[in-house]
Amino acid sequence: MRTAPISLALAAAVATAVATAPALAEYPEKPVQIVVPFGAGDALDTSGRVIAKRLKDRFGVPFLVKNIPGAGGGKGTAEANKAARDGYTLLMGSTGALTARPLISKPGYATADFVPIAQLVEVPIGLAVAADSPFRSVKDIVAAAKAKPGGIKYATPGPGATQHINMEIFAKNSGIKMTHIGGRGGKGAVTKTLSGEVDFVFVGAPNYTALAKAGKLRVIGLAAPGRVSYLPDTPTFREQGYEFDVAVWFGLLTHRGAPAGVVAKLRKAVAEIAADPETKALYKKVNLNEAFLGGDDFQKRIDANVAKHKVVLKDIGLMK
Question: Which among 16, 71, 285, 299 has most CB atoms closer than 10 A?
Fold first, then answer.
């Protein structure tokens, strides 16, 4: 007499499991938001829009970019950290905002709050001045800074950004002191240079291409092992006598705690998208260097950056 109820209960449980199983398989069932913690038009924003387009093509639902600039990427990253842990909010993370900013202050998130989907691209950093600037080389800037400690002002996307940290390292190694001013993103930092508020800007080199071509900016140093095709006349720091290479990486992440199946699905999709020639062509068109790393390898790079920044930030006085 008890067999039937047990069978009915089992059947009900199986029916429930079958009914709920497709929910994960059907992700995403609604639009997905990609938070870009810098302004529209920045290199990070551009890379975010490339992957958003390709994910939309893949899944058939909108992947919507939301720009939240401020605090060197900290404001947008903190906002992304407030969203539900369901995989419907993704983050375009950058080196400084994700791995250095939490060591300098309490921005409303920790590096460990996010799980990596994939690293997407790398961007070399360049130093540029306004077209009417008296500085023609990196050596000119170093000489001026030595003559007037603290008198030379420069802009980066914001405090704690990779560009800021590495320019402070460069200054220390060169025996100079300069004044840093945050730009609320790469475009903002460029604007401060064009307006004369600062003497130079140090951001991702792709930010300069149109302005350099128009004759409004002069890019006088590239912190890379060699020259790049989109700024062929720009000498590297190495060519000017300085061993100084800096690149910033951009990658896609979501909350740690998002469903494992969703994370796995996104990782698989992004890996396949990254290998697609169309994606590579889109990156090349906007002067971004494809540098794909899968989720596990991306996590290793993030961990290595945190370990490095703990040492470097103390050394240059940005972390107690």
Answer: 71
